[in-house]
From TrEMBL, chains A, B:
GO MF annotations in UniProt: flavin adenine dinucleotide binding; oxidoreductase activity, acting on the CH-CH group of donors
Residue span, Acetyl-CoA dehydrogenase-like C-terminal domain: 469-578
Protein family per UniProt: Belongs to the acyl-CoA dehydrogenase family.
Keyword line: FAD, Flavoprotein, Oxidoreductase
Listed name of the protein: Acyl-CoA dehydrogenase
């Protein structure tokens, strides 16, 4: 069967504009750590990745959907072309682009990794999830593993000879990770015997790497109940031999693959560990901390997956709308449906949402880079220090994850609508974007969990990191006000409402906070989006297409912050006033 | 393979409450036309349909998804159990429940048909689409067909011996119906030779009816271009013989079935007519008017399909959430996730949205019934007359369609989220609701088309029908204010904002209206939802679960009207400020 390729063109000019004018990439390039990654280098790197995404990965998107990964005699057979696609990613060095050069990485900023991951995900989300998992594992090992494990695993993960997975969830332990039952008992040789069943393991196996490295959460015999008694283990599919090659098979197996709504090219497995040999990563009982390193990376990465799909779905819909002729409008002489106001509304909103979401993801990545680069730098008088940047990154991560994936779902859904009846026909490809992206709001912590993380853990500083960000936004709006009074005023006021909402949340009870968490997170993303667009309009001198897009966002979309904040501050009482019995019948 | 049945319990107490306290069913029952359908009869009818839906149709939901209808040697083979399910619907008399008793119908109000259709759709949407098509055809024939056609076709459509379809769309003529190319030329015997290709024909064929009756739009030789030159023809699969039985095969065929995102149990076909024999329905060149009778019926019906899926998805999610244990909360001693504030938010919002959407659909149906019942009644001094009710029905139809289907999509999407990772696994069944319902925002006129219908055709009265409805809402809010000041104030103010938005729209240019149409329609639905919940809270004495649900809607969801109205009044200029070139890269 002939598999049609999705058209995809990487948004390189948007990346460049965002790096130059919105997210302050110059600050990253000015650090010692990332001194080699100046804007010209960055531009060249992104152009290279754009080529990979468009030429090599985009043709695999439909193949993964039509020919899902399957389990044959205990071994996963991947979708046609995926092995070659993975090899191209590995050979380009993209797996280790943010990794330590000491182990073969490129040591590039997370900001560039974020842009590259976006492009690869737009082209083929199911395959891109594999490198994303390896990237997270690389980072977790860099931070928490022993030197021996680093020396053995990192070069192979970075080269793509081996791939990585994360194993948290069990059937009774999803959002409540602390309920896990997997056990690890010490062996005489310093290794551990790991046993248990894990579910929802993305890319648990493949037929293009010579080993699959599972990071598994399990409890030691003296581990306390709950999350404080959990340890992290490296449990490879094949035990490394004396030369560090994949040797004897470990005592683990892929039990089954899930039949999912989408992302068919990515095998999602139930894994069984039966006294499998594992090595402790990090200190005993400190597994959650190590896993959080991987998860925070993955949360940014999953938010970017949402963005990826939004961009892919947008390009797909625009391509169709330009070609589709229905009725006549003064605005499209050729009869293309782009001339119709409501089609134009859908397309411009999609584009405006994508720009805002991309800005949030890149701000997040810049904060990560600055935190890393400045960790040991002396505090400046005015400049934010490493801890400030780390707090900024921590604040933005749940927003990037939840908002990015919601944007992916909404834009993909709108993309179907732009196609009309064709959107419901699978051959068109529009529906695949929605099916694929839907899981991103669930995995790596559901969006509800992200929102609770934002209003609880990330507000444990009394809202300090949030207020600092809001002050920046209002300062920028004040500067923009003389030239763009209406737009700047709207953004300033929205930030002020968000500040009031933040004050309410910080003072609220846990239940009230949690009842408003999702709405608050969305409101925060709206304000950040307004800030991004206002900055873009200002940088464009208040005219031209970027200013027009800013007007679309600020006039038509930003007002949502108000209704979201009303919901955020509505409290939990009404929700609990309905009994379980009342909810039915 | 064992196919698990979805749990489904018909919301009979909600129907009764809505009929008694919200939508004024007593007015319908007080008319001469519907005098037999008093509330006790209505209750008995709904209880009977509830039994059919839960016992007979719900077990077919998964079967339709897993075993799609397929085309074998030009004949459609339907999903396992669908033939028996259809027979049960037919034998219960549900196909003709609103039809004229002169031809075997029950002559019951559309209000009850709407509730019954909702239940059948919750249980098995793919199968329910078949009766919905027949119901629309029955109504179109009752209004427009010759007595001979009525006498021949109506009894068989009502008994379910034959089924009906509607054939509008061609590949170049979707939303722009006037671009159709199908031709009809007169034969010597008074019939017509109909030729052309039609796409997206729902239930174009089946293996459980002895004939399939296609209503086909085509152009006569002297038909003008555009929609004014289109005529409507009855083109049956088998030509009726002298005894009115299905005889010789007509010259038409099912070319292919679409491979769709969902609704797999419903065959969606490309149909080819090659000098097929047809009979004119209605006057020459007046086919659009006749088809609109069918489409208006179908638009209400499709809006109700959205509601159906919302209810099904809600029950499915609630069932899961009560059983799923994660973490501990003070609010759920057994550890069920219903105790978590964000899960509770999702469930209560779903329930509140469903109640509001059901009220809108039933208001719409009541208006249709009152318009029909009062058409020949003398004008009362105060009471709205038939024309007022008809205008009310016309105003509400696009709102019911677009908002009902959006609710279906949003609630089904939230239902997946409530399931966490299980929501992405197809076996769970949660994803099917989203896949199935997605088309409802597209077919029978996309939701964008509905919104344009609302702000153009339905506002051609200068907004009079809208203002009359808003006045009722504000009068009710004023009555409610002493007992429920906060809730009543919020609804009154929202209605006032909607009145201002309506004034703006009525005075605006076509482009500005169309650019705001979708947002305006959603805002209207929000206000109607607030009105429904406020009325429910008042009827409940301001306390108890209905008042609690009203607080959830009015405090947490109704505020969206403001941001939607801001978008509705933002105008088209910014959308068109971006050129086609600007939309890409």
């Amino acid at each position: 069967m002939k598999v049609p390729a999705m058209p995809y063109t990487a948004p390189l000019s948007d990346f460049r504009f965002l790096l130059d004018h919105i997210v302050g990439y110059h600050r990253v390039a000015a650090t010692d750590r990332f001194a080699d990654a100046d804007i010209d280098t960055a531009t060249a790197v992104l152009a290279e990745a754009a080529k990979l995404a468009a030429d090599t990965l985009a043709p695999l998107q439909r193949a993964g959907d039509l020919h899902p990964a399957r389990l044959e005699n205990g071994v996963v057979r991947t979708s046609p072309g995926f092995a070659e696609g993975f090899r191209a990613i590995a050979e380009g060095g993209w797996l280790g682009m943010a990794a330590d050069p000491a182990h073969g990485g490129m040591g590039l900023p997370m900001t560039l990794t974020t842009a590259v991951n976006e492009m690869m995900g737009s082209a083929c989300l199911a395959l891109q999830l594999n490198p994303l998992m390896s990237q997270g594992q690389i980072e977790a090992l860099e931070h928490h593993a022993s030197d021996a494990i680093k020396a053995l695993y990192l070069p192979k993960l970075i080269s793509g000879e081996w791939t990585g997975t994360m194993n948290l969830t069990e059937s009774q332990a999803g959002s409540d990770v602390g309920a896990l039952r997997a056990r690890a008992t010490p062996n005489a040789d310093g290794t551990y015997a790991v046993s248990g069943q894990k579910i929802y393991i993305s890319w648990a196996d493949n037929d293009f790497a010579t080993n699959v490295c599972h990071l598994v959460l399990a409890r030691l015999p003296d581990g306390a109940p709950g999350t404080r008694g959990i340890s992290l283990f490296m449990v490879p599919k094949f035990l490394p031999d004396a030369n560090g090659h994949a040797g004897q098979a470990n005592s683990l197996r892929v039990v089954s693959l899930e039949h999912k709504l989408g992302l068919h090219g990515s095998p999602t497995a139930v894994m069984d560990y039966d006294n499998a040999t594992g090595w402790l990563v990090g200190a005993p009982h400190k597994g959650m901390a190590a896993m959080f390193t991987m998860m925070n990376n993955a949360r940014l990465g999953v938010g970017v997956q949402g963005l990826s799909v939004a961009e892919g779905a947008y390009q797909h819909a625009l391509y169709y709308a330009r070609d589709r002729r229905q009725g006549r409008t003064p605005q499209a002489a050729d009869g293309a449906i782009t001339g119709h106001a409501d089609v134009r509304r859908m397309l411009t909103h999609m584009k405006a949402e994508i720009f805002a979401t991309r800005a949030i993801a890149l701000w997040n990545a810049v904060a990560i880079d600055m935190a890393r680069a400045q960790t040991d730098a002396p505090d400046g008088a005015d400049a934010p220090d490493g801890a400030d940047w780390a707090a900024r990154a921590a604040l933005l991560t749940p927003i990037t994850k939840a908002h990015g994936t919601e944007t992916g779902i909404e834009v993909a859904n709108t993309g179907i609508q732009v196609h009309g009846g064709m959107g419901y026909v699978e051959e068109t490809g529009a529906a695949q974007y929605l099916r694929d992206v839907r899981v991103t709001a669930i995995y790596e912590g559901t969006n509800g969990i992200q929102a609770m993380d934002l209003v609880n853990r990330k507000m444990a500083d009394g809202g300090e990191a949030a207020y600092r960000l809001l002050e920046e936004i209002q300062t920028a709006a004040e500067s923009a006000r003389p030239a763009l009074p209406a737009l700047a005023g709207a953004v300033w006021n929205a930030a002020e409402s968000l500040r009031e909402g933040t004050e309410w949340l910080v003072a609220a009870s846990v239940d009230d906070r949690n009842a408003g968490a999702v709405a608050y997170l969305r409101a925060f993303a709206r304000v950040l989006g307004g800030h991004a667009h206002l900055t873009a309009a200002t940088a464009s001198g208040g005219s031209g297409p970027r200013a027009a897009l800013a007007r679309v966002f600020i006039t038509r979309i930003l007002p949502e912050h108000a209704s979201l904040l009303a919901q955020a501050q509505a409290g939990a009482a009404d929700l609990y006033a309905l009994s379980d019995m009342d909810l039915s019948a």
